[in-house]
Amino acid sequence: MQVALDDYVWAAGVATDLVNTAPEVWHGEDKLPDLASLVAFAELHSIPVNTRPSGLRAVRRLRGTVRDLIDHPAQARLVTGATALTSSIGDVTLDTSSSSSRWAVSLRPGSTVADALSLICGVGILGVVQSLGSARFRACGAPTCQGAFIDTTRPGRRRYCMPGLCGNRVNVANHRARKASAAASGLHNA
Question: Which of 1, 137, 158, 187 is most buried (CB neighbours < 10 A)?
């Protein structure tokens, strides 16, 4: 597997998805409870699967490390932490297999899914810090969510870790509050 250094948007998305599998995001339910769920997560993100029983523990530790980096986004800390995630896992190469050359990191043979995820998360964090800045590492804006994310949108105004879930919940709550307020004011006007 290769991770192109300029493909940080995809890599940051994988990092966001990984940290948001944690129990604190899902009110106690871990979205990576077993090896089968880890395999499904890896396959969903087109990550080669080489799991060992210890792989799940390694991925959960990685999830905590990446979450800690997102929660404390000082630029120097992000660079140091992401560099540590990528330093011993792969080899930097110039990929000339397509029409345009690009720098990539190739996983070493025998790498685990935890190694692949570590490399991907590190590349995503480094790319976002370099291209977009450390202000793009945020906590979810939904009042009942403990999720976090890396905002790679062009305008940089993303507010929710999972816009389709958290954003929708906030919109529904706001709609219900407006509806209740309108009903209450209608009773007072009658």
Answer: 137
